[in-house]
Amino acid sequence: MKKSILNSFFFVLLSFLVSCSSTQCRRKDKVPAMPSQSNVDKTLNIKDNNKPETVYIFKYDGSLQCGMGQAIPLDEMAKELEGIKIYSKANKADGLMHIQVCGSNTGNANVYEIAKTELPVALQKGFKSWQF
Fold this sequence. Notes:
- The protein has helices spanning 2-19, 23-26, 37-43, 74-78, 119-124, and strands at 54-60, 86-93, 108-115, 128-129.
- With 132 residues, the chain is an alpha+beta fold.
- The chain has one domain.
- A four-stranded antiparallel sheet has the order 2-3-1-4.
- The protein is elongated and about 80 Å long.
């Protein structure tokens, strides 16, 4: 009995030591920094210094699991936002859990950055605020 408890203790101790001997467990100097807003703007190639306060809106792209639905391209869906200036656009996953069955929504959405003052117009056109 004592021997099995002692063996269990050493096994747990050895597991702990081995798991923390990797560089990922100990490394604190390589933590990626959050990008500053100016870095994000450079990445998105935004050169508008008078950019207003913006919000993100989205519509699901229509893609379905098992390749059953055709995704609407970003530029094609952007035509629905005629008259609204788009500062950035991307196709992103909503991050929610979706049932995994052929024909079900994939959770991929076309996301657009627009001026906050244009939000009511975009909502009337069927877009929703991006909260993910």
